[in-house]
Amino acid sequence: MLVHVGAVPTVVVSTPQAAEAVLRTHDHVFASRPRNPVADIIRYNSTDIAFAPYGDYWRRARKVVNTHLLSVKMVYSKRHDREEEVRLVVAKIRELAMAAPGKALDMTELLGGYASDFVCRAVLGESHRKHGRNELFRELTEISASLLGGFNLEDYFPRLANLDVFLRVVCSKAMGVSKRWDNLFNELIAEYEHGKEDNAEDFVHLLLSLKKEYGLSTDNVKAILVNMFEAAIETSFLVLEYSMPYLKATIKEAMRIHPPAPFLLPHFSTNDCEINGYTIPAGTRVIVNAWALARDPSHWERAEEFYPERFLQEGRDAEVDMYGKDIRFVPFGAGRRICAGATFAIATVEVMLANLIYHFDWELPSEMEAIGAKVDMSDQFGMTLRRTERLHLVPKIYK
Ligand code: HEM
Predict the structure, then answer these.
(1) pTM of the entire structure?
(2) Orientation of helix 218-243 relative to helix 342-359, angle to 10°
(3) Measured in angstroms, how far is the CA atom of residue 8 from the centroid of ligand 1?
(4) I need a surface site. Which of 66, 111, 190, 341 has the fewest CB within 10 A?
(5) Structure confidence at residue 245 (pLDDT)
(6) Percent helix, strand and coil across the chain, each rounded to 5?
């Protein structure tokens, strides 16, 4: 489907055949990103990974992340840190449950805090709780994500870019947050240079020590770090919030019904390309509607139902892959711009979910039980898909 959003022609892809063409067959043509003025400001001229145009710089940045930061080996080596962060949350829930039995907890806050604390620990190493840095990173990540995900006039009416009003209203917020990110990174880099924090396994240390080898500037390193925070914190905890109370199949089903990035990130074509008999000219923005693909009733039985057993029983869905091989189900995207942190994300989600189920029985708040109310599972669309209502549940400690 071709839609004209303001001045920008945008192709929206919602069928498996067209998604296959865009994300796999002609992946190289659609592997770029449209320019995003907010990313230019808060991602150091879009030199992170997610917003970098397809080309030599993106290849180098993606390689350093795939090889050193988010490799399977690295994700595994963070096991101890992950488990310790989970233990802290479990202990906190236990303490709250004992202090006020029957009181509902704000799971949105607790799970969001876990995702943020663990990512801070992976990225910053031991210094993450110092000076309340984890709180600060969480706040900055939330502001940046809302700016990037918000409707941007300039994205759709590019000629407005020079108008004072645009510069004042849209950019001043982005500039403010960018300055705060930059001050934080300068502090971290100064610590690294003075050798105060000697933990070579965290992302800041790894990136700074590899920057020469990969031809990255200090600003490039900062851009990649912002990307790590936003990509990891904004997504993993959304899955956690949605998937209680089941496990592996449940995580998959939660990602099918509530994909954290429902439209992936926008792709951008660099050559003309023929798809399903239509010529898509170079320079077209393409949105892949992963949400629609995963709920298409002609490709899924009981498409609208939360039914994790579909991934367990024998049948065509039992072996469904969620890492880009089955085009009906691409919560992490597919092809060369596929999510770089999928293994990291699933490891983060699984260990927490397993512990929440192992240690506690979960109930609805009594006022909801009394009127037979159910958890509100409706979604709020944006760059990430969020719950409309925060999740409140009551933990019961197993005797
Ligand atoms: C459940 C959690 C997550 C989901 C559902 C998710 C999903 C996605 C999606 C849909 C894309 C865009 C793919 C495309 O445009 O075709 C993406 C890109 C990306 N993600 Fe994730 N992500 C998650 C967690 C993470 C984590 C934990 C990290 C890092 C620690 C991460 C790092 C990235 C990066 C760097 C990119 C940009 C890739 C590129 O443009 O080359 N993601 N992610």
Answers:
(1) 0.84
(2) 40
(3) 25
(4) 190
(5) 43
(6) 55, 10, 35
Per-residue pLDDT reduced to its tens digit, 57-94? 999 999 999 998 888 888 888 888 888 899 999 999 99
Write down the pLDDT at residue 162. Answer: 56
Mark the ranges of the chain whose per-residue pLDDT is less than 50: 245
How is residue 238 written in tokens?
A: 């959304």
List strand residue ranges (DSSP E) for 37-182, in order.
105-106
Q: At what angle do helices 133-149 and 107-124 cross, to 10 degrees?
A: 110
Residues 6+ apart with CB under 8 A from 237: 111, 112, 114, 115, 116
Helix H, strand E, coil C: the string for 241-264 is HHHCCCCHHHHHHHHHHCCCCCCC
| Rounded-to-integer distance, Cα 168 and Cα 326, Å | 44
CB of 262 shorter than 6 A to ligand 1: no
Query: What is the best residue among 74, 233, 251, 332 to mutate for testing ligand 1's pocket, by most ligand atoms within 8 Å of CB?
Result: 332
* Residue-level pLDDT at 164: 60
Task: In whole angstroms, give the CA distance from residue 60 to residue 210.
Answer: 11
Give the Cα separation of 234 and 378 in Å (integer): 18
ipTM of the modeled complex? 0.96
pLDDT at 371: 87
Cα-to-chain-centroid distance, residue 383 = 9
The secondary structure element, H or E, covering residue 267 is: strand 267-268
**Which of 247, 216, 244 lies closest to 364 in space, CA to CA?**
244
Residues 19, 38: Cα–Cα separation, whole Å: 27
Tokens of 75: 């994700």
Query: Whose C-alpha lies nearest to ligand 1, atom 6?
Result: 332
Task: Give the atom of ligand 1 at the shortest distance from the alpha carbon of 349.
Answer: 1
In the annotated binding site for heme, the residues are: 339
* Binding site membership of 227 for ligand 1 (Cβ less than 6 Å): yes
- 139 burial via Cβ count (<10 Å: 0-12, 13-18, 19+): middle
Angle between helices 248-257 and 342-359 (to 10 degrees): 120
Those residues whose C-beta lies under 8 Å from the C-beta of residue 105, and which sit 6 or more positions away, are: 93, 96, 97, 392, 393, 394, 395
261 Cβ below 6 A of ligand 1: yes
